Protein backbone atom coordinates (compact mmCIF):
# COMPACT_ATOMS: atom_id res chain seq x y z
CA UNK A 1 0.00 0.00 0.00
CA UNK A 2 3.05 2.27 0.01
CA UNK A 3 2.94 5.15 -2.45
CA UNK A 4 5.89 6.03 -4.66
CA UNK A 5 5.30 8.60 -7.38
CA UNK A 6 7.53 10.49 -9.80
CA UNK A 7 6.94 13.24 -12.35
CA UNK A 8 9.66 14.40 -14.74
CA UNK A 9 9.37 18.03 -15.81
CA UNK A 10 11.48 20.13 -18.18
CA UNK A 11 13.97 21.32 -15.53
CA UNK A 12 13.82 18.61 -12.85
CA UNK A 13 12.02 15.64 -11.31
CA UNK A 14 9.39 15.63 -8.57
CA UNK A 15 9.27 12.59 -6.26
CA UNK A 16 6.57 11.83 -3.70
CA UNK A 17 6.48 8.98 -1.17
CA UNK A 18 3.93 8.13 1.51
CA UNK A 19 4.98 8.90 5.10
CA UNK A 20 3.28 5.91 6.77
CA UNK A 21 5.46 2.97 7.80
CA UNK A 22 3.08 0.02 8.04
CA UNK A 23 3.52 -3.45 9.49
CA UNK A 24 0.56 -5.80 9.36
CA UNK A 25 -2.48 -3.88 10.65
CA UNK A 26 -0.49 -1.18 12.43
CA UNK A 27 0.98 2.12 11.33
CA UNK A 28 4.29 2.32 13.17
CA UNK A 29 5.37 5.78 12.08
CA UNK A 30 3.95 8.80 10.22
CA UNK A 31 7.26 10.42 9.26
CA UNK A 32 8.87 7.59 7.25
CA UNK A 33 11.36 8.56 4.54
CA UNK A 34 11.22 6.09 1.64
CA UNK A 35 14.03 7.81 -0.25
CA UNK A 36 17.84 7.89 -0.16
CA UNK A 37 20.14 10.47 -1.73
CA UNK A 38 22.60 8.45 -3.84
CA UNK A 39 24.71 11.47 -4.81
CA UNK A 40 24.32 15.24 -5.35
CA UNK A 41 21.93 14.84 -8.31
CA UNK A 42 20.58 11.29 -7.86
CA UNK A 43 17.71 10.22 -5.64
CA UNK A 44 16.19 6.77 -5.17
CA UNK A 45 12.65 6.21 -3.88
CA UNK A 46 11.65 2.65 -3.01
CA UNK A 47 8.96 0.24 -1.80
CA UNK A 48 8.80 -3.47 -1.14
CA UNK A 49 9.53 -6.06 1.52
CA UNK A 50 10.42 -4.23 4.73
CA UNK A 51 13.99 -5.00 5.70
CA UNK A 52 15.04 -5.53 2.10
CA UNK A 53 14.17 -1.96 1.11
CA UNK A 54 16.47 0.08 3.34
CA UNK A 55 19.21 -2.57 3.19
CA UNK A 56 19.14 -2.44 -0.62
CA UNK A 57 18.86 1.35 -0.85
CA UNK A 58 21.81 1.91 1.47
CA UNK A 59 23.88 -0.73 -0.34
CA UNK A 60 23.28 1.15 -3.61
CA UNK A 61 23.94 4.49 -1.88
CA UNK A 62 27.28 3.27 -0.48
CA UNK A 63 28.40 1.89 -3.84
CA UNK A 64 27.49 5.07 -5.73
CA UNK A 65 29.33 7.19 -3.15
CA UNK A 66 32.35 4.86 -3.31
CA UNK A 67 32.42 5.25 -7.09
CA UNK A 68 32.18 9.05 -6.80
CA UNK A 69 35.11 9.14 -4.35
CA UNK A 70 37.32 6.74 -6.37
CA UNK A 71 36.71 8.35 -9.75
CA UNK A 72 36.35 11.95 -8.59
CA UNK A 73 33.17 12.65 -10.55
CA UNK A 74 29.46 12.04 -10.24
CA UNK A 75 27.88 9.06 -12.02
CA UNK A 76 25.17 10.07 -14.54
CA UNK A 77 21.52 9.17 -13.83
CA UNK A 78 21.67 6.80 -16.83
CA UNK A 79 24.64 4.94 -15.34
CA UNK A 80 23.09 4.89 -11.86
CA UNK A 81 19.82 3.44 -13.20
CA UNK A 82 21.68 0.68 -15.04
CA UNK A 83 23.71 -0.14 -11.94
CA UNK A 84 20.52 -0.48 -9.87
CA UNK A 85 18.84 -2.57 -12.59
CA UNK A 86 21.83 -4.84 -12.92
CA UNK A 87 22.03 -5.34 -9.15
CA UNK A 88 18.35 -6.34 -9.00
CA UNK A 89 18.56 -8.55 -12.10
CA UNK A 90 21.52 -10.43 -10.61
CA UNK A 91 19.77 -10.70 -7.24
CA UNK A 92 16.62 -12.13 -8.90
CA UNK A 93 18.42 -15.40 -9.68
CA UNK A 94 20.10 -15.69 -6.28
CA UNK A 95 19.03 -17.74 -3.24
CA UNK A 96 17.17 -14.77 -1.72
CA UNK A 97 16.31 -11.97 -4.17
CA UNK A 98 15.82 -8.36 -3.01
CA UNK A 99 12.09 -7.61 -3.18
CA UNK A 100 12.46 -3.91 -3.84
CA UNK A 101 10.82 -1.65 -6.40
CA UNK A 102 12.44 1.70 -7.08
CA UNK A 103 12.09 5.00 -8.87
CA UNK A 104 15.32 6.78 -9.75
CA UNK A 105 15.20 10.52 -10.13
CA UNK A 106 18.25 12.32 -11.41
CA UNK A 107 19.57 15.40 -13.13
CA UNK A 108 22.35 14.96 -15.69
CA UNK A 109 24.60 17.98 -15.08
CA UNK A 110 26.55 17.44 -18.35
CA UNK A 111 23.59 17.03 -20.70
CA UNK A 112 21.44 19.35 -18.56
CA UNK A 113 18.50 16.93 -18.68
CA UNK A 114 16.30 15.44 -15.96
CA UNK A 115 15.83 11.68 -15.82
CA UNK A 116 13.23 9.36 -14.28
CA UNK A 117 13.59 5.55 -14.31
CA UNK A 118 10.99 3.00 -13.20
CA UNK A 119 12.62 -0.21 -11.97
CA UNK A 120 10.85 -3.20 -10.39
CA UNK A 121 12.28 -6.05 -8.30
CA UNK A 122 12.76 -8.21 -11.42
CA UNK A 123 15.16 -5.64 -12.86
CA UNK A 124 12.68 -4.35 -15.42
CA UNK A 125 13.72 -0.80 -16.32
CA UNK A 126 11.71 1.84 -18.15
CA UNK A 127 12.58 5.51 -18.63
CA UNK A 128 9.33 7.42 -18.31
CA UNK A 129 7.94 10.96 -18.12
CA UNK A 130 5.90 10.00 -15.02
CA UNK A 131 5.80 6.79 -13.01
CA UNK A 132 4.32 5.08 -9.96
CA UNK A 133 4.68 1.78 -8.13
CA UNK A 134 2.01 -0.37 -6.51
CA UNK A 135 -1.67 0.51 -6.11
CA UNK A 136 -0.93 4.23 -6.42
CA UNK A 137 -0.25 3.62 -10.12
CA UNK A 138 -3.85 2.55 -10.74
CA UNK A 139 -5.23 5.77 -9.23
CA UNK A 140 -2.71 8.32 -10.51
CA UNK A 141 -1.55 7.23 -13.98
CA UNK A 142 -4.88 8.12 -15.61
CA UNK A 143 -4.69 11.60 -14.09
CA UNK A 144 -1.10 11.97 -15.25
CA UNK A 145 -1.97 10.69 -18.76
CA UNK A 146 -4.60 13.41 -18.99
CA UNK A 147 -2.82 16.42 -17.49
CA UNK A 148 0.89 15.82 -18.18
CA UNK A 149 2.66 18.14 -20.63
CA UNK A 150 6.35 17.71 -21.34
CA UNK A 151 7.11 21.46 -21.17
CA UNK A 152 5.94 21.71 -17.55
CA UNK A 153 8.03 23.46 -14.86
CA UNK A 154 8.64 22.18 -11.32
CA UNK A 155 5.76 24.41 -10.13
CA UNK A 156 3.43 22.80 -12.71
CA UNK A 157 4.68 19.38 -11.59
CA UNK A 158 3.86 20.17 -7.96
CA UNK A 159 0.36 21.34 -8.98
CA UNK A 160 -0.15 18.05 -10.82
CA UNK A 161 1.12 16.18 -7.77
CA UNK A 162 -1.50 17.97 -5.62
CA UNK A 163 -4.16 16.56 -7.97
CA UNK A 164 -2.71 13.05 -7.57
CA UNK A 165 -2.55 13.46 -3.79
CA UNK A 166 -6.22 14.48 -3.68
CA UNK A 167 -7.22 11.41 -5.71
CA UNK A 168 -5.11 9.11 -3.51
CA UNK A 169 -6.67 10.54 -0.36
CA UNK A 170 -10.18 9.88 -1.65
CA UNK A 171 -9.56 6.41 -3.13
CA UNK A 172 -6.93 4.75 -0.92
CA UNK A 173 -8.59 2.44 1.64
CA UNK A 174 -6.15 3.31 4.45
CA UNK A 175 -4.56 6.57 5.61
CA UNK A 176 -1.05 6.85 4.15
CA UNK A 177 -0.21 9.80 6.47
CA UNK A 178 0.47 12.23 3.66
CA UNK A 179 3.36 12.52 1.23
CA UNK A 180 6.97 13.50 1.50
CA UNK A 181 7.89 15.49 -1.59
CA UNK A 182 11.37 16.01 -3.01
CA UNK A 183 12.61 17.80 -6.12
CA UNK A 184 15.79 16.91 -8.03
CA UNK A 185 17.12 19.63 -10.34
CA UNK A 186 20.38 21.35 -11.31
CA UNK A 187 20.81 22.59 -7.72
CA UNK A 188 20.57 19.08 -6.25
CA UNK A 189 17.96 17.35 -4.09
CA UNK A 190 15.57 19.43 -1.97
CA UNK A 191 12.58 18.62 0.27
CA UNK A 192 9.44 20.56 -0.67
CA UNK A 193 7.76 21.90 2.45
CA UNK A 194 4.02 22.30 2.74
CA UNK A 195 0.82 20.40 3.40
CA UNK A 196 0.92 17.13 1.48
CA UNK B 1 -0.68 -15.64 -15.11
CA UNK B 2 2.41 -16.54 -13.10
CA UNK B 3 4.18 -17.57 -16.32
CA UNK B 4 7.26 -15.30 -16.32
CA UNK B 5 7.21 -15.04 -20.13
CA UNK B 6 3.78 -13.34 -20.11
CA UNK B 7 4.10 -10.88 -17.19
CA UNK B 8 5.30 -7.98 -19.32
CA UNK B 9 3.72 -8.94 -22.67
CA UNK B 10 4.94 -8.22 -26.19
CA UNK B 11 5.42 -9.94 -29.53
CA UNK B 12 7.68 -9.96 -32.56
CA UNK B 13 7.59 -11.36 -36.10
CA UNK B 14 10.09 -11.83 -38.94
CA UNK B 15 9.43 -12.52 -42.66
CA UNK B 16 11.45 -13.38 -45.76
CA UNK B 17 10.87 -11.59 -49.08
CA UNK B 18 12.72 -11.48 -52.39
CA UNK B 19 16.30 -10.47 -51.51
CA UNK B 20 14.95 -8.88 -48.34
CA UNK B 21 13.87 -9.69 -44.80
CA UNK B 22 11.62 -7.87 -42.37
CA UNK B 23 11.42 -7.92 -38.58
CA UNK B 24 8.88 -6.13 -36.42
CA UNK B 25 7.82 -5.80 -32.77
CA UNK B 26 5.27 -4.01 -30.64
CA UNK B 27 6.25 -1.27 -28.15
CA UNK B 28 4.29 -2.21 -25.01
CA UNK B 29 5.87 -2.88 -21.63
CA UNK B 30 3.33 -3.89 -19.03
CA UNK B 31 2.99 -5.23 -15.53
CA UNK B 32 0.18 -7.82 -15.82
CA UNK B 33 -2.81 -5.73 -17.03
CA UNK B 34 -1.22 -2.34 -16.31
CA UNK B 35 0.54 -0.61 -19.20
CA UNK B 36 3.83 0.86 -17.99
CA UNK B 37 5.68 2.09 -21.11
CA UNK B 38 4.87 2.51 -24.81
CA UNK B 39 8.46 2.93 -25.99
CA UNK B 40 9.89 -0.48 -25.12
CA UNK B 41 11.46 -1.76 -28.35
CA UNK B 42 12.11 -5.47 -28.67
CA UNK B 43 14.22 -5.53 -31.85
CA UNK B 44 17.96 -4.93 -31.52
CA UNK B 45 20.67 -4.51 -34.16
CA UNK B 46 24.11 -6.12 -34.08
CA UNK B 47 25.98 -5.06 -37.24
CA UNK B 48 23.70 -6.25 -40.06
CA UNK B 49 21.94 -8.88 -37.94
CA UNK B 50 18.67 -8.19 -36.12
CA UNK B 51 17.43 -9.86 -32.94
CA UNK B 52 13.84 -9.72 -31.70
CA UNK B 53 13.50 -10.49 -27.98
CA UNK B 54 10.12 -11.03 -26.34
CA UNK B 55 9.23 -12.38 -22.90
CA UNK B 56 10.31 -11.31 -19.41
CA UNK B 57 11.48 -7.69 -19.83
CA UNK B 58 14.39 -7.92 -17.37
CA UNK B 59 15.78 -10.83 -19.42
CA UNK B 60 15.15 -8.92 -22.67
CA UNK B 61 17.35 -6.08 -21.35
CA UNK B 62 19.98 -8.45 -19.93
CA UNK B 63 20.25 -10.51 -23.14
CA UNK B 64 20.43 -7.44 -25.37
CA UNK B 65 23.39 -6.26 -23.29
CA UNK B 66 24.98 -9.74 -23.30
CA UNK B 67 24.74 -10.06 -27.09
CA UNK B 68 26.04 -6.52 -27.63
CA UNK B 69 29.05 -7.50 -25.49
CA UNK B 70 29.57 -10.82 -27.30
CA UNK B 71 29.20 -9.40 -30.83
CA UNK B 72 31.59 -6.55 -30.02
CA UNK B 73 34.22 -9.10 -28.89
CA UNK B 74 33.50 -11.21 -32.00
CA UNK B 75 34.03 -8.16 -34.21
CA UNK B 76 37.40 -7.39 -32.62
CA UNK B 77 38.60 -11.01 -32.97
CA UNK B 78 37.36 -11.60 -36.53
CA UNK B 79 37.71 -8.01 -37.83
CA UNK B 80 34.26 -8.28 -39.44
CA UNK B 81 30.62 -8.20 -38.36
CA UNK B 82 28.89 -11.44 -37.32
CA UNK B 83 26.70 -13.19 -39.95
CA UNK B 84 23.06 -14.14 -39.24
CA UNK B 85 23.69 -17.93 -39.22
CA UNK B 86 26.63 -17.55 -36.83
CA UNK B 87 24.66 -15.21 -34.61
CA UNK B 88 21.79 -17.72 -34.46
CA UNK B 89 24.21 -20.33 -33.13
CA UNK B 90 25.58 -17.80 -30.62
CA UNK B 91 22.02 -17.15 -29.36
CA UNK B 92 21.35 -20.89 -29.18
CA UNK B 93 24.47 -21.78 -27.15
CA UNK B 94 24.07 -18.72 -24.90
CA UNK B 95 20.51 -19.77 -24.02
CA UNK B 96 21.40 -23.44 -23.52
CA UNK B 97 24.11 -22.45 -21.05
CA UNK B 98 21.16 -21.62 -18.77
CA UNK B 99 19.35 -24.93 -19.49
CA UNK B 100 18.28 -25.50 -15.87
CA UNK B 101 17.51 -21.88 -14.99
CA UNK B 102 16.56 -20.32 -18.30
CA UNK B 103 16.04 -16.75 -19.48
CA UNK B 104 12.27 -16.47 -20.04
CA UNK B 105 12.50 -15.13 -23.58
CA UNK B 106 11.37 -15.89 -27.11
CA UNK B 107 14.03 -14.69 -29.55
CA UNK B 108 13.96 -14.36 -33.36
CA UNK B 109 16.89 -13.59 -35.63
CA UNK B 110 16.66 -11.93 -39.05
CA UNK B 111 19.29 -10.74 -41.49
CA UNK B 112 20.92 -11.08 -44.90
CA UNK B 113 24.21 -12.95 -45.16
CA UNK B 114 26.72 -10.41 -46.47
CA UNK B 115 28.78 -13.09 -48.35
CA UNK B 116 25.99 -15.12 -49.98
CA UNK B 117 23.25 -12.45 -50.02
CA UNK B 118 20.83 -15.13 -48.75
CA UNK B 119 17.99 -13.94 -46.48
CA UNK B 120 17.93 -15.73 -43.10
CA UNK B 121 15.35 -15.93 -40.34
CA UNK B 122 14.82 -18.28 -37.40
CA UNK B 123 13.22 -18.40 -33.98
CA UNK B 124 14.15 -20.12 -30.70
CA UNK B 125 12.54 -21.51 -27.58
CA UNK B 126 13.74 -20.25 -24.19
CA UNK B 127 16.50 -22.89 -23.95
CA UNK B 128 17.93 -22.25 -27.40
CA UNK B 129 16.39 -24.83 -29.75
CA UNK B 130 16.61 -23.24 -33.22
CA UNK B 131 13.52 -23.29 -35.43
CA UNK B 132 14.78 -22.49 -38.95
CA UNK B 133 12.18 -21.01 -41.28
CA UNK B 134 12.06 -20.04 -44.94
CA UNK B 135 8.89 -17.94 -44.76
CA UNK B 136 8.07 -16.39 -41.36
CA UNK B 137 8.86 -16.71 -37.65
CA UNK B 138 6.76 -15.51 -34.71
CA UNK B 139 7.32 -15.14 -30.95
CA UNK B 140 5.63 -13.53 -27.95
CA UNK B 141 2.27 -13.39 -26.18
CA UNK B 142 0.46 -12.88 -29.52
CA UNK B 143 2.29 -15.76 -31.24
CA UNK B 144 -0.91 -17.79 -31.82
CA UNK B 145 -2.59 -14.79 -33.42
CA UNK B 146 0.58 -14.05 -35.44
CA UNK B 147 0.65 -17.59 -36.81
CA UNK B 148 -2.93 -17.10 -38.00
CA UNK B 149 -2.21 -13.74 -39.64
CA UNK B 150 1.03 -14.94 -41.26
CA UNK B 151 -0.57 -18.15 -42.62
CA UNK B 152 -3.27 -15.97 -44.17
CA UNK B 153 -1.28 -13.02 -45.52
CA UNK B 154 2.17 -14.38 -46.36
CA UNK B 155 3.24 -15.14 -49.92
CA UNK B 156 6.78 -15.90 -51.16
CA UNK B 157 9.07 -13.50 -53.06
CA UNK B 158 7.50 -10.21 -51.97
CA UNK B 159 9.26 -6.93 -52.80
CA UNK B 160 10.51 -4.84 -49.84
CA UNK B 161 7.50 -2.49 -50.09
CA UNK B 162 4.97 -5.35 -50.24
CA UNK B 163 6.79 -7.19 -47.44
CA UNK B 164 6.49 -4.05 -45.27
CA UNK B 165 2.74 -3.99 -45.89
CA UNK B 166 2.35 -7.72 -45.15
CA UNK B 167 4.39 -7.82 -41.94
CA UNK B 168 2.79 -4.61 -40.65
CA UNK B 169 -0.76 -5.87 -41.17
CA UNK B 170 0.13 -9.25 -39.67
CA UNK B 171 1.56 -7.64 -36.51
CA UNK B 172 -1.09 -4.94 -36.12
CA UNK B 173 -4.04 -7.30 -36.47
CA UNK B 174 -2.50 -9.99 -34.26
CA UNK B 175 -1.80 -7.39 -31.55
CA UNK B 176 -5.41 -6.18 -31.61
CA UNK B 177 -6.46 -9.68 -30.46
CA UNK B 178 -3.90 -9.73 -27.62
CA UNK B 179 -4.38 -7.68 -24.45
CA UNK B 180 -0.67 -7.84 -23.57
CA UNK B 181 0.73 -6.64 -26.92
CA UNK B 182 0.38 -3.43 -28.92
CA UNK B 183 0.75 0.26 -27.90
CA UNK B 184 2.58 1.01 -31.17
CA UNK B 185 4.96 -0.98 -33.35
CA UNK B 186 8.40 -0.75 -34.99
CA UNK B 187 9.14 -2.36 -38.37
CA UNK B 188 12.56 -2.94 -39.95
CA UNK B 189 12.87 -3.71 -43.68
CA UNK B 190 16.33 -5.05 -44.52
CA UNK B 191 17.82 -5.36 -48.02
CA UNK B 192 21.42 -5.96 -49.03
CA UNK B 193 22.40 -2.31 -48.92
CA UNK B 194 19.57 -0.53 -47.13
CA UNK B 195 17.95 -0.78 -43.71
CA UNK B 196 14.75 1.15 -43.12
CA UNK B 197 13.00 1.53 -39.79
CA UNK B 198 9.44 2.74 -39.46
CA UNK B 199 7.19 3.26 -36.44
CA UNK B 200 3.52 2.32 -36.80
CA UNK B 201 0.67 4.00 -35.00
CA UNK B 202 -1.76 1.48 -33.60
CA UNK B 203 -4.75 1.15 -31.29
CA UNK B 204 -4.00 2.48 -27.80
CA UNK B 205 -6.27 0.10 -25.85
TrEMBL record, chain A:
Molecular function terms, GO-annotated: endopeptidase activator activity
Gene Ontology cellular component annotations, sorted alphabetically: endoplasmic reticulum membrane; nucleus; proteasome core complex, beta-subunit complex
A GO BP entry: proteasome-mediated ubiquitin-dependent protein catabolic process
Localization terms from the record: Cytoplasm; Nucleus
Purpose of the protein: Component of the proteasome, a multicatalytic proteinase complex which is characterized by its ability to cleave peptides with Arg, Phe, Tyr, Leu, and Glu adjacent to the leaving group at neutral or slightly basic pH. The proteasome has an ATP-dependent proteolytic activity.
Family statement drawn from the similarity comment of this UniProt entry: Belongs to the peptidase T1B family.
Quaternary organization: Component of the proteasome complex. The 26S proteasome consists of a 20S proteasome core and two 19S regulatory subunits. The 20S proteasome core is composed of 28 subunits that are arranged in four stacked rings, resulting in a barrel-shaped structure. The two end rings are each formed by seven alpha subunits, and the two central rings are each formed by seven beta subunits. The catalytic chamber with the active sites is on the inside of the barrel.
Name of this protein: Proteasome subunit beta
Organism: Komagataella phaffii (strain GS115 / ATCC 20864) (Yeast)
Automatic annotation (TrEMBL), chain B:
Protein name: Proteasome subunit beta
Domain of life: Eukaryota
Oligomer status and interactors: The 26S proteasome consists of a 20S proteasome core and two 19S regulatory subunits. The 20S proteasome core is composed of 28 subunits that are arranged in four stacked rings, resulting in a barrel-shaped structure. The two end rings are each formed by seven alpha subunits, and the two central rings are each formed by seven beta subunits. The catalytic chamber with the active sites is on the inside of the barrel. Component of the proteasome complex.
Biological role: Component of the proteasome, a multicatalytic proteinase complex which is characterized by its ability to cleave peptides with Arg, Phe, Tyr, Leu, and Glu adjacent to the leaving group at neutral or slightly basic pH. The proteasome has an ATP-dependent proteolytic activity.
Family per similarity comment: Belongs to the peptidase T1B family.
GO MF assignments: endopeptidase activator activity
Subcellular location as annotated: Cytoplasm; Nucleus
UniProt KW keywords: Cytoplasm, Nucleus, Proteasome
InterPro entries (alphabetical): Ntn_hydrolases_N, Proteasome_beta_3, Proteasome_bsu_CS, Proteasome_sua/b, Proteasome_suB-type
Amino acid sequence: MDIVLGIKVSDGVVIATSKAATRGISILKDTDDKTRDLSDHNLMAFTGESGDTVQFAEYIQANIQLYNMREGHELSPYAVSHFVRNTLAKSLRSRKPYQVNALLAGYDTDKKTPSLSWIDYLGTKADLPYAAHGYAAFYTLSLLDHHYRKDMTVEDGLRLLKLCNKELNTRMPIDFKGLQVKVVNKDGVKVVDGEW
Amino acid sequence: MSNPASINGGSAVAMVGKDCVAIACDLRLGNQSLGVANNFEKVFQFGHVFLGLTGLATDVITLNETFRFKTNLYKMREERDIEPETFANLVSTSLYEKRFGPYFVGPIVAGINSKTNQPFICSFDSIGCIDYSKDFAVVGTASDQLYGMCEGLYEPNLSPDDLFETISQALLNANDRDALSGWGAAVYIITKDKISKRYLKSRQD
